[in-house]
Amino acid sequence: MLLAMRAVKRRPCPETMVWAGLMGLESGDLELARQMLDQVRQLGGDPFGETEWLAMQIAYRDPEQRVPDLARELEGRRDLSPVVSQKVQLELMWAALREGDGNEARRRAEYLLKVDDVPDAHMGLWALATMDGNERAAKAQYERARLPKARKMYMEAYCRTLMRDFEGAGRLQAQLQELDPSLAESTKRWLKEEG
Known about the structure:
- The longest helix is centred in the middle third of the chain and has 17 residues, at 82-98.
- The protein has 195 residues and is mostly helical.
- The protein has helices at residues 2-10, 14-26, 30-43, 50-61, 67-75, 82-98, 102-115, 119-132, 135-144, 149-162, 166-179, 181-194.
- It has a domain at 1-65.
């Protein structure tokens, strides 16, 4: 963290502050990340939209924040970077799925897929097709979600958690323990939070 703070002192610009905030998050220092976000917002002049990326990353780790609320706040912005814009749409798709609004979740997933081949959007459509009992469409969406095996299992477990299929998510969590313990731990956390 010392290196990050030296960089901010030498070059107090949005890019350096965002980088320091992200480094703070990686080292578990949520307070430093929040301080850097506040400083970037005060400084202004972030041409690359990195401020919002830092805000999203903080929201993922901050138990006091709700990611869907931040996504709704950012949704109307037209100055977001493509990566942040995609993340906002994904979070709103997941929120709609969690809230049982299949039409909204489908609309957002289809929008994302018009822009780019987003594997998580395919997983959202897989979940919707699974809930609708459309095995053929579910299989097609699952195959279109080109992800490494552990990541795909992780996303399936996440979808199953949102679908309230805690038993299925639990089985995947157990399998993930062998492949990727950190993803298994995240799945365990979702099961605890949602179940």
